[in-house]
Amino acid sequence: MKIGKRLYLIFIVTASVLSYWMFNTYISNDFFSDTPDQIRASDIYQQLNRIVYHLNKPSTHFQHNNQILFLACIQNDQSFGFNRTFIDYLDLIRDQAIPSMPSNLGLLVSDKKLYHAIDSYLFKHASTLNFYTITLLLDTTPSHTNRLNRHDDGIQRRRRKHIASLRNQLLYAAMGNEIGAVWIDADIMKIPQGLTKRMVESNKDIITPSCIMTNYAGDYDLNAWRGDRTHPSSSEIESIKNGGSYTPYHLAGTKFVSDMKDEGKFAKLDSVGGTMLYVKMEVFRKGVNFPPFYLIGADWDRVEGWDGVETEGLCYVARTLGYQCWGMPHEEIVHSE
Question: Which neighbouring-strand residues pair with 72?
Fold first, then answer.
């Protein structure tokens, strides 16, 4: 009987030590392999699955923290635009890699079928894609939007809050020792060669190019601007307090990125969009994120305000910590139709 108890205790201790070693080995950012290595872990977030591929160890020629993280939230297979696929999008990101800096990739997918298709593709090809770490997340929380209605005023409040939440989840799950993060929307079709490198070398805290669309006059991304916006009236504020909706509009004199070409290579912005966005990791590590609520006008008895959600709120919070948002008026990326 005593021998049995001793053997049982030895088994428990051994199993505990092995479990601790395996957990720390597989979760550590210092663990890499020459072949795709999947780490499947249930996450604390409801409806969220996570897979991490640790693919290559950065060369000794690179500084270990001199890395760039590419990020994207993808709703479904329609998110890439007309007649485009995940492969097209992946090629676009790979073309933006900086040869002297290791690249990592983070993707959040909201459609199970597409998520499993991407997982299958990465399992077969990840080791040839030249990323050092790839994080793949699944979050199927309903967005109640689609590609046709996503710009309707009536759903912007709910849509922008949802996108902000997804961006934050992906950022926190994928970020490591990188010096900066580059968000590129799935439906971006064309990016000037070397733009990511120029964004990093600008040494700007937060920076975005001009985003246009073929056969569309002016800027497509109207979330990147400098100027003044409307404020709600007292009755509208009362409506917001009771759950009502309010959409802020730009006042006369507001400028978008393409309107600032006479200001030089870089122009100060009050707000940025997320079609292509570079943010120093220092900014995120200091506590800035994508506010998943309308923070401007919020109060203790009014949970939400009327402006400053997602990327717009990013600039607002960053400014309070001494950071500045910038535009690149002479750099144009092309959005799909």
Answer: 107
pLDDT, tens digit (0-9, with 9 covering 90-100), for 70-94: 999 999 999 999 999 999 999 999 9
pLDDT tens-digit series, residues 169-220: 999 999 999 999 999 999 999 999 999 999 999 999 999 999 999 877 789 9
Q: Is 82 within 8 Å of 73 (Cβ atoms)? A: no
d(CA 263, CA 266): 7
Report which DSSP code applies to 264: -
* Cα separation, 79 vs 77, whole angstroms: 5
Q: Which residues contact 13 (CB under 8 A, 6 or more apart)?
A: none
Helix, strand, coil distribution of the chain in percent, nearest 5: 35, 25, 40
**Residue 289 to residues 45, 166, 175, 267, 275: CA-CA distances in angstroms?**
18, 11, 13, 22, 16
Rounded Cα–Cα distance for residues 334 and 332 (Å) = 7
Q: Which two tokens stand for residue 9?
A: 């205790």
- The answer to whether residues 101 and 66 touch, using CB atoms and an 8 Å cutoff, is yes
Q: In this structure, are strands 267-269 and 325-335 parallel, antiparallel, or unpaired?
A: antiparallel
Residue 290 and residue 254 in contact, taking contact as beta carbons nearer than 8 Å: no
* pTM of this structure: 0.84
Tell me how far CA of residue 228 lies from CA of 49, 72, 253, in angstroms.
Answer: 41, 29, 8
Other CB atoms within 10 Å distance of the CB of residue 31: 13
- Enumerate the β-bridge partners of residue 133: 54
Range list of H helices, the chain: 2-27, 86-95, 112-125, 156-174, 195-201, 234-241, 281-285, 310-320
Residues 317-321 have a mean pLDDT of: 97
Q: Give me 76's structure tokens.
A: 């479904």
The two structure tokens encoding residue 119:
């997982």
Max distance between CA atoms of the chain, in angstroms, equals 87
